[in-house]
Amino acid sequence: MLQATDLRNSMLRAHGAYATQLMYNGGQGFSGADGSSAATFVDHNVTAFRSTTVLIENSIYTAVLLCIGASGSLALGLIYGFRC
Fold first, then answer.
1. Where are the domains of the chain?
2. pLDDT given for residue 55 in this prediction
């Protein structure tokens, strides 16, 4: 008999595998905007596609956001930390 936890785990694994397949195109690569690559994007469920980098890190923006969050936490801690 199939247990509920086994069904849940298999559905989560299948969902993760499908998301990875969509994200990385099954390891086939993508064609550029000028069509320079031989591999093409063939998923008919996707209506728009733009080849770009997924994660772009800019350390200045990251540092500014961390400073804003830290100063906000510091201000709230000082304001409400000494109240009864």
1. 4-80
2. 63
